[in-house]
Amino acid sequence: MPKNDFSHVDQWVFDLDNTLYPPQARLFDQIEVKMTQYVMEALGVDRDRADHLRTHYWATYGTTLTGLMREHDVDPGPYLTEVHEISLDHLEIDVDLASHIQALPGRKIVYTNGSAPYAERVLAARGLSGLFDAIYGVEHADFRPKPELAAFEMVFAKDGISTERGAMFEDDPRNLAVPHALGMRTVHVAPDPHEADHIHHHTDDLTHFLGQLHAK
Length: 216
Known about the structure:
By secondary structure, the chain is an alpha/beta fold. Helices cover 43% and strands 12% of the residues. InterPro entries: HAD-like_sf, HAD_sf, Pyr-5-nucltdase.
Protein backbone atom coordinates (compact mmCIF):
# COMPACT_ATOMS: atom_id res chain seq x y z
CA MET A 1 0.00 0.00 0.00
CA PRO A 2 1.70 3.24 -1.10
CA LYS A 3 1.55 5.56 1.88
CA ASN A 4 1.83 8.56 -0.44
CA ASP A 5 -1.68 7.69 -1.64
CA PHE A 6 -2.79 9.30 1.62
CA SER A 7 -0.14 11.99 2.01
CA HIS A 8 -2.64 14.68 0.97
CA VAL A 9 -5.47 13.38 3.18
CA ASP A 10 -6.49 15.33 6.27
CA GLN A 11 -10.22 14.52 6.28
CA TRP A 12 -11.15 10.96 7.18
CA VAL A 13 -14.67 9.52 6.83
CA PHE A 14 -15.52 6.16 8.39
CA ASP A 15 -18.63 4.07 7.94
CA LEU A 16 -19.73 2.33 11.15
CA ASP A 17 -21.24 -1.14 10.80
CA ASN A 18 -18.78 -3.86 9.74
CA THR A 19 -16.15 -1.14 9.27
CA LEU A 20 -15.27 0.16 12.75
CA TYR A 21 -15.96 -3.29 14.17
CA PRO A 22 -15.31 -6.68 12.52
CA PRO A 23 -18.22 -8.45 10.80
CA GLN A 24 -17.60 -11.45 13.08
CA ALA A 25 -19.46 -9.48 15.77
CA ARG A 26 -22.58 -10.13 13.67
CA LEU A 27 -24.52 -7.15 14.95
CA PHE A 28 -26.49 -7.09 11.73
CA ASP A 29 -27.91 -10.53 12.53
CA GLN A 30 -29.71 -8.85 15.42
CA ILE A 31 -30.65 -5.76 13.42
CA GLU A 32 -32.09 -7.82 10.55
CA VAL A 33 -34.37 -9.71 12.96
CA LYS A 34 -35.60 -6.37 14.31
CA MET A 35 -36.12 -4.97 10.81
CA THR A 36 -38.09 -7.98 9.66
CA GLN A 37 -40.31 -7.76 12.75
CA TYR A 38 -40.86 -4.03 12.15
CA VAL A 39 -41.84 -4.64 8.52
CA MET A 40 -44.27 -7.36 9.61
CA GLU A 41 -46.00 -5.05 12.06
CA ALA A 42 -45.91 -1.89 9.95
CA LEU A 43 -47.21 -3.50 6.77
CA GLY A 44 -49.28 -6.34 8.22
CA VAL A 45 -47.44 -9.07 6.31
CA ASP A 46 -46.08 -12.45 7.34
CA ARG A 47 -42.43 -13.11 8.15
CA ASP A 48 -41.46 -14.50 4.74
CA ARG A 49 -42.93 -11.49 2.93
CA ALA A 50 -41.36 -9.08 5.40
CA ASP A 51 -37.96 -10.72 5.00
CA HIS A 52 -38.28 -10.48 1.21
CA LEU A 53 -39.20 -6.80 1.37
CA ARG A 54 -36.37 -6.06 3.78
CA THR A 55 -33.74 -7.46 1.40
CA HIS A 56 -35.48 -6.07 -1.71
CA TYR A 57 -35.55 -2.54 -0.33
CA TRP A 58 -31.91 -2.77 0.78
CA ALA A 59 -30.85 -3.87 -2.70
CA THR A 60 -33.05 -1.29 -4.46
CA TYR A 61 -32.63 1.79 -2.29
CA GLY A 62 -29.54 1.24 -0.15
CA THR A 63 -31.49 0.73 3.07
CA THR A 64 -34.68 -1.04 4.10
CA LEU A 65 -35.84 2.19 5.72
CA THR A 66 -35.74 4.08 2.43
CA GLY A 67 -38.02 1.55 0.79
CA LEU A 68 -40.45 1.71 3.69
CA MET A 69 -40.50 5.51 3.56
CA ARG A 70 -40.87 5.83 -0.20
CA GLU A 71 -43.30 3.01 -0.82
CA HIS A 72 -45.26 2.96 2.45
CA ASP A 73 -44.72 6.38 4.06
CA VAL A 74 -43.29 4.80 7.23
CA ASP A 75 -42.13 7.24 9.92
CA PRO A 76 -38.34 6.85 10.18
CA GLY A 77 -37.97 7.93 13.81
CA PRO A 78 -39.60 4.98 15.60
CA TYR A 79 -38.08 2.58 13.08
CA LEU A 80 -34.51 3.76 13.74
CA THR A 81 -35.01 3.57 17.49
CA GLU A 82 -36.52 0.08 17.41
CA VAL A 83 -34.15 -1.70 15.01
CA HIS A 84 -31.03 -0.44 16.77
CA GLU A 85 -32.08 -1.59 20.26
CA ILE A 86 -29.67 -4.51 20.19
CA SER A 87 -27.04 -6.08 22.44
CA LEU A 88 -23.46 -4.87 21.92
CA ASP A 89 -21.99 -7.51 24.21
CA HIS A 90 -20.03 -9.10 21.37
CA LEU A 91 -18.05 -5.92 20.69
CA GLU A 92 -14.57 -5.68 22.11
CA ILE A 93 -12.45 -2.62 22.85
CA ASP A 94 -9.69 -2.20 20.27
CA VAL A 95 -6.92 -0.16 21.84
CA ASP A 96 -4.72 -0.33 18.74
CA LEU A 97 -7.50 0.88 16.44
CA ALA A 98 -8.20 3.77 18.80
CA SER A 99 -4.53 4.71 18.79
CA HIS A 100 -4.28 4.60 15.00
CA ILE A 101 -7.42 6.71 14.53
CA GLN A 102 -6.23 9.23 17.06
CA ALA A 103 -2.93 9.56 15.18
CA LEU A 104 -4.58 10.42 11.85
CA PRO A 105 -3.90 14.02 10.88
CA GLY A 106 -6.82 16.41 10.50
CA ARG A 107 -10.56 15.90 10.83
CA LYS A 108 -12.21 12.53 11.46
CA ILE A 109 -15.94 11.76 11.21
CA VAL A 110 -18.27 8.77 11.27
CA TYR A 111 -21.00 8.61 8.63
CA THR A 112 -23.48 5.74 8.86
CA ASN A 113 -26.79 4.73 7.30
CA GLY A 114 -27.82 3.90 10.86
CA SER A 115 -28.65 6.55 13.44
CA ALA A 116 -26.16 8.77 15.25
CA PRO A 117 -27.27 7.63 18.75
CA TYR A 118 -26.69 4.01 17.72
CA ALA A 119 -23.27 4.95 16.35
CA GLU A 120 -22.34 6.55 19.66
CA ARG A 121 -23.24 3.35 21.52
CA VAL A 122 -21.13 1.25 19.15
CA LEU A 123 -18.15 3.60 19.39
CA ALA A 124 -18.33 3.46 23.19
CA ALA A 125 -18.36 -0.34 23.13
CA ARG A 126 -15.28 -0.33 20.88
CA GLY A 127 -13.36 2.16 23.00
CA LEU A 128 -13.55 4.78 20.24
CA SER A 129 -15.58 7.50 21.97
CA GLY A 130 -14.15 10.99 21.73
CA LEU A 131 -11.89 10.23 18.77
CA PHE A 132 -14.17 11.68 16.10
CA ASP A 133 -14.96 15.33 15.43
CA ALA A 134 -18.55 14.52 14.41
CA ILE A 135 -20.95 11.60 14.01
CA TYR A 136 -23.54 11.64 11.23
CA GLY A 137 -26.44 9.25 10.79
CA VAL A 138 -29.02 8.87 8.05
CA GLU A 139 -31.10 11.50 9.85
CA HIS A 140 -28.46 14.12 8.98
CA ALA A 141 -29.01 13.42 5.27
CA ASP A 142 -32.78 13.97 5.53
CA PHE A 143 -33.08 10.16 5.69
CA ARG A 144 -31.53 9.76 2.25
CA PRO A 145 -29.16 6.78 2.36
CA LYS A 146 -25.74 6.10 1.03
CA PRO A 147 -25.10 5.35 -1.86
CA GLU A 148 -27.18 8.34 -3.08
CA LEU A 149 -25.16 11.35 -4.21
CA ALA A 150 -27.56 13.72 -2.44
CA ALA A 151 -26.93 11.96 0.88
CA PHE A 152 -23.17 12.38 0.64
CA GLU A 153 -23.53 15.97 -0.51
CA MET A 154 -25.74 16.87 2.46
CA VAL A 155 -23.44 15.32 5.06
CA PHE A 156 -20.24 16.60 3.50
CA ALA A 157 -21.73 20.09 3.20
CA LYS A 158 -22.81 20.04 6.86
CA ASP A 159 -19.31 19.04 7.91
CA GLY A 160 -17.38 21.20 5.44
CA ILE A 161 -15.55 18.20 3.99
CA SER A 162 -13.18 18.99 1.12
CA THR A 163 -13.43 15.72 -0.78
CA GLU A 164 -10.20 16.20 -2.72
CA ARG A 165 -8.41 15.97 0.65
CA GLY A 166 -10.57 13.12 1.96
CA ALA A 167 -10.59 9.35 2.37
CA MET A 168 -13.62 7.09 2.83
CA PHE A 169 -13.61 3.71 4.63
CA GLU A 170 -16.65 1.53 3.99
CA ASP A 171 -17.70 -2.13 3.94
CA ASP A 172 -20.35 -1.81 1.20
CA PRO A 173 -18.63 -1.29 -2.17
CA ARG A 174 -21.70 0.52 -3.52
CA ASN A 175 -21.10 3.29 -1.01
CA LEU A 176 -17.63 4.05 -2.33
CA ALA A 177 -18.67 5.00 -5.86
CA VAL A 178 -19.76 8.55 -5.00
CA PRO A 179 -16.77 9.30 -2.75
CA HIS A 180 -14.49 8.16 -5.59
CA ALA A 181 -16.32 10.35 -8.07
CA LEU A 182 -15.93 13.28 -5.66
CA GLY A 183 -12.15 12.80 -5.58
CA MET A 184 -11.68 10.87 -2.33
CA ARG A 185 -9.33 7.98 -1.61
CA THR A 186 -11.53 4.90 -1.17
CA VAL A 187 -10.86 1.91 1.07
CA HIS A 188 -13.07 -1.17 1.02
CA VAL A 189 -13.10 -2.79 4.47
CA ALA A 190 -14.38 -6.37 4.15
CA PRO A 191 -13.26 -9.99 4.36
CA ASP A 192 -13.23 -10.40 0.58
CA PRO A 193 -11.88 -7.99 -2.05
CA HIS A 194 -14.29 -6.36 -4.48
CA GLU A 195 -12.65 -5.43 -7.76
CA ALA A 196 -13.96 -2.12 -9.10
CA ASP A 197 -12.50 1.02 -10.61
CA HIS A 198 -13.92 3.13 -7.78
CA ILE A 199 -12.05 1.19 -5.07
CA HIS A 200 -8.44 2.20 -4.49
CA HIS A 201 -7.60 -0.14 -1.60
CA HIS A 202 -9.01 -3.19 0.14
CA THR A 203 -8.35 -4.42 3.65
CA ASP A 204 -9.83 -7.13 5.84
CA ASP A 205 -8.19 -5.53 8.91
CA LEU A 206 -8.78 -1.81 9.43
CA THR A 207 -6.53 -1.68 12.49
CA HIS A 208 -3.59 -3.08 10.52
CA PHE A 209 -4.31 -0.86 7.51
CA LEU A 210 -4.27 2.32 9.56
CA GLY A 211 -1.18 1.12 11.40
CA GLN A 212 0.60 0.78 8.04
CA LEU A 213 -0.22 4.40 7.28
CA HIS A 214 1.74 5.41 10.38
CA ALA A 215 4.61 2.97 9.84
CA LYS A 216 7.95 4.52 9.03
